[in-house]
Amino acid sequence: MSELFYNGFGEEKYVVAPLFCGMEKCAPSHRYGPNVRQCYLIHYVESGKGRFWTDDKEYELKKGWMFLISPGELTTYEADENDPWVYKWIGFECDFDISDIFCKNVVFSERCEEMFDKILESVKYGENAELFSAGKICEILALLRYKISSPHKREQNYAQKAKSYIEANYYKDITVEGIADEMGLDRSYLSSVFKEQIGVSPKEYIVNFRLANAAELMTSYDFSPMQAAASCGYPDIFNFSKMFKKKYGISPREYKKNFEGKQ
Length: 263
Hints:
- This protein has helices at 113-120, 129-148, 151-169, 176-183, 187-198, 202-220, 225-231, 237-248, 252-261, and strands spanning 4-6, 14-25, 31-36, 40-47, 49-54, 57-62, 65-69, 74-79, 86-94, 106-108.
- By secondary structure, it is α+β, with helices and mostly antiparallel strands.
- It has two domains: 4-148, Jelly Rolls, CATH 2.60.120; 150-263, Orthogonal Bundle (Arc Repressor Mutant, subunit A).
- Helix 1 runs antiparallel to helix 2 (129-148), helix 3 crosses helix 5 (187-198) and helix 3 (151-169) runs parallel beside helix 6 (202-220).
- It starts with a strand and ends with a helix.
């Protein structure tokens, strides 16, 4: 049994160990259970329909749904009599509780189908098959944890990621649209989230960050206004001077001269 130390849920490290996997095209009304498993088991419904019971609760599931069986949990599942399901499964052990990722033991995510396919194909990796499967299990868990994270938390992450991108690339020819494309987000949505979380629009943040760095270069490193402009994403010195004066009330040259006069 192989083990993978995966750092996807924070700074702590976790262990995931795949045990078995498979796929089944069920006969009508095929039923399994009630039974108890000693490991985690996740089923992904590829097609058809069926029912899943746990803790006196019943769920009707179809394509794209997954259901989780935890160690020691009594469960039963049954294929529909008219449209029996086809499902894939992966059984594994891990040293952390994943039940918080599944809402009421079931969750919908068609994006996970590809990962289950990869796990079933892992035999081609030979002695690395178990390690490969462990990685795919971690991808599934990471995707599902992101899916259930609160919208507010996601917006905070988007804003912070955009802010960090600006601070690392402010000297380049970056635009809000380009940042949004880089993050796979709509420009208007990113601008709205950024302003709500940071307090200014991303365009304003780019300008303010560039000008603040230009001011520091002129005063702390004796850059000329032209050198500071070129170093902070302003190839046009006239545009730079205009933006600088709008923010600080005086031209870059006057700003630098005033600072030198105080030395």
